[in-house]
Amino acid sequence: MCSESVAVAKGGQAQEAGVSAGAGPGFMALLRTELLLAIRRRADIVNPLLFFVTVLAMMPLGIGPDPEMLARMAPGLIWVMALLATLLSQESLFRGDYEDGSLEQISLLPQPLYFAVLAKVAVHWLVTGLPLAVLSPLLGLMLNLPAAGYLPLVISLLLGTASLSLIGAVGAALTVALQRPGLLLALIIMPLYVPVLIFGTGTVQAALDGYAYSAQLAVLGAILAAAAALAPLAAAGAIRISLDH
User: Fold this and answer.
1) How remote is the C-alpha of 116 from its chain's centroid?
2) Alpha helices per DSSP H over 41-94
3) Which of 150, 124, 157, 160 is nearest to 44 (CA)?
4) What is the pLDDT of residue 15?
5) How many CB atoms lie within 10 A of CB 225?
6) pLDDT tens figures, 123-149
7) Which residue ranges of the chain lie beneath pLDDT 50?
8) Are 153 and 141 in contact (CB under 8 A)?
């Protein structure tokens, strides 16, 4: 689909969302449109997953095949690669919409821009974070992760990657008007990713050490709740500033 037809399709969907009776129908209309467009852009889905799987598959070749060493490093390796794979796809979150003009049309909707940002982030997580979490047990098996770590790994990635998508949306919105935002985007959001990485890795490590990991999951849930409430608001404000310039 060419950029002009994408802009027309999004513009039509924006009008449909705008005339909806409330925020709920408008949000669902935007969510369906973004999901359809994400499915059509298969490369945006495949590239982060391919990076995630390829790098982790090569880790035993780089650090050695010792099972005990791989088992100790597995939680951190999987979480770091999931973080980098999410970061890899963040730059394009608003880029296409900004370039074809549909982001400006969406910003003119009568409903808050918060819901449009939340819809885009939800789709980003569905096509990036969710597949990463689903694939993580297979990669844990490749890295000799003990059986006790599989369930906390999946749960922590489900919560953590959702937070990463929300936090990354703020950086993507701040840099959407720049020509080459890659390095600046990483500098903005990487420090904000650190707490998610620490508690995500800590969840799996606690399970491997035989301790309860509910406290770490509770912190990840709290981070996700705070990010869901605040990150779309910050991203919406950054988008309006970018559009004004």
Assistant:
1) 15
2) 42-63, 67-90
3) 124
4) 45
5) 12
6) 999 988 999 999 899 889 888 899 999
7) 1-21
8) no
